[in-house]
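Predict the structure of DNA ligase.
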Amino acid sequence: MLYSDIADVFDRLEGTSSRLEMTSIFSDFFKGLDPGSLRKIVYLSQGRLHPDFYNAELGMADKLVLRAISFTAGVSESKMDELWKKEGDPGKIAETLMKNRKQASLFSEPLTLEKVLKNLTMIESAEGRDSQDKKMKLLSNLLMDSNPVEARYLCRIVTGRMRIGAGSMTILDALAEAFGTKEDRPDIERGFNITCDLGFVAETLAIGGVEAVKKMKVTVGNPIKVMLAERLPSISLIMDRMGGRCAMEFKYDGIRVQAHIDRDSVKLYSRRLEDMTSNFPDIAAELRKQCRAERAIIEGECVAIDKDGNMLPFQNVTHRRKKHGMDQAVEDYPVKIFMFDILSVDDEDMTLRPLGERRSKLNETFGLSDMIQLTTMEVVNSPEEGEDFFNRALGKKCEGIMAKSLSQESVYRAGSRGFLWIKYKKDYEEALTDSFDLVVVGAFHGRGKRAGKYGALLMAAFDDESGKYCTVCKLGTGFDDAFLAGMPDMLDEYLSETHPSTVDAEMIPDVWFLPTVILEVVAAEISLSPIHTAAKSIMKDNAGLGLRFPRFTGRVREDKGPEECTTVNEIISMFEMQAQNKA
Ligand code: AMP
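Done. Here is the predicted structure for DNA ligase.
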């Protein structure tokens, strides 16, 4: 297959901001592909060769890509610097220079998908002293044979920033349209939620249709999208919603870990599907030791503890997120894991079983030790019992409680937030609202003391229905000097020359960013806003919801991907919760 056919599709996708149009461009294209190529092209559309959780990634630095472009086009470094300052996107620079090229090399041949995949695979696996040089030459070798549009997307694929605005939800829509009907969309999405592998779902669907996707199971080694909790403003509302009876667990303040335990290996994934095995080698080894099954997938919260075994606040466990010096961190910051769910045991998929059954299975399957424990859980039958349990949780330095449904429908809903689990935290009693995890979509140049830096950021929440990031506030408070100075390093690699098609904004910043970096923000209140686009016209005609007096808490949520930030629906429910609290 010719790579130009793929690049042309990416180009058409980039030219539209309508999700419906993107879906139909993709689905028409998908229908004509063989299943193996479809799988690979789905990964390429996300700037990858493999699913997100795969350990290796292309991730070439911009500087290296620029070197490959200058090597291919025969352009001086100073000219490249000039172009880089102007464009800020290696893809655009490659495209411009390939257009200006008088003629392609005499030996130039049309690029095929196979050739592109071969070189990209070598780039992904290049290691050792001269690996940078090798990567640069492998990319240049492809650029030699590229037309301008092909070059644009080659440079975007290797940096992992495609800028075509089509996320996983659009691909799932397109897969349903190409190989099934609208009604099949939830089954296809479940396939993705339990495997986290869009390419695999696409291939399975193209080979065996929706029936094959329905038979997909959770598997050790494929992380599962985590189930998330809704929130309510009081224990009595929680008990009402749960029908007067539910399980309550302590809500520990640590890092969520999904452990995939195999006969002789264990992998730990974060809720963002990053491999964290090297951060918690002690937990991985102890889980293997205490697990009575050959294979299992469990979830738990890893919490830092002091010398006497008492739980410490979240900040302490983040020392375990380091890249280097882990041996020392393991010694300095001991942790425990509190297990709360089991998703598979010896290849038996537990995700569709009710919570009570899963909890019994968890108890049966694991021995306990100092390091491996179960969350404290009790069955609660009244608001008074709930309040009592909540107070005991706070006494043990927990954040609050998780209420969990015990009904027959209380399955593990991979990748979704719902009322089967409801969280209730100490903050809910005190402040108007919980904190927000918002994604940076733009910045405003600073003035006065902040001249020459970014002075404020435009922040957005994710609308999981439209797939867009909708603005909720301009954030300029809570930044210390070090954070202000470090902002360009953190953000500039996501600069976008134009208003990104996935961002829904009326407030126009000085610079745009592709939605990537997530910051934790607190605010005094959620209010109706004439300028912000979150929940536009839902609570009131022509008004959206915005945050009043937003402040950065100092916490960059590196553990969350952009689609995992606070959603517009959550902000609506917090707005309603705030109204009830005020009443
Ligand atoms: P939040 O991050 O505020 O949305 O709260 C949900 C998170 O609480 C989960 O992702 C877990 O990391 C954490 N957590 C702590 N204790 C529990 C528990 N007993 N059950 C489920 N999640 C828990």
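The mean pLDDT is 92.
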